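Subject: for your reference before the review

Hello V.,

The reviewers asked for a structural picture of the protein, and I figured it would be easier to keep everything in one thread rather than splitting it across files. Below is the amino acid sequence we used in the manuscript, unchanged from the supplementary table.
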Amino acid sequence: MLNRPTKLNAVTPAMAARLESLCRDIDRDDGVRAVLIRGAGPRAFCAGSDLNALADYPSAWTFRNRVEYATAVRDIRKPVVAALHGWVLGGGAETALSADIRVMGRSARFGFPEVQRGWVGGGGASQMLPRLIGYGQAMKLLLTGDPIDATEAHRLGLVEYLVDDDKVEDEARALCRKFAGFSPVAVESVKASVRMAMASTLAAGLRYENEMNTLCFAAGDHMEGIRAFQQKRDAEFKQ
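And here is what came back from the structure prediction:
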């Protein structure tokens, strides 16, 4: 949880370092099957980087070597669900884009205001947005810096689930529980395959998908899936 509600959960360097450490721990912990990321308090998921902290970097080189918190979330191998409410801005919006599934409350607002402050976001917006919503819509959001409401975010495909504000966390947790019930090998293979599709040619992606498919069969979880189908019951994956 991003826990700085009085500042709209704006991320400080210390928070970024802690988040990066947690993301590494999550990947090493076999007991974690799915990840929910949310913001504390009623006003925001995250308003991005703390602007006062950005002003304190002693040099451009130091800033260049900062911990990039959206990237830390994007690099998690396991499925990540973002529960979005209130303001979702700048680095907070990039963190949301770094999740695999986004659940958004109807009153939430999504935006990338960096251009209005004099820079381009460094957490992936210019790379992820065109892949998610196309060039023109990405340029509209990034060049104007104007926020959009949850209905428009859902229409564009920025968020997968649009729900009442008081249902956001419940819906996100339900998705995490669903993913956690599947084979972890299969779930991580799905994520790895789709991420490869975003970064490679079709031919390379198809070959990679087949390797991931083979890995799933080698892991053996598919036998539980087959037995469950034959016995007309839910599969119980232990791995």
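For the response letter, the relevant points are probably these. The longest helix spans residues 202-219. The chain has a mean pLDDT of 96.

Happy to draft the paragraph if you're swamped.

O.
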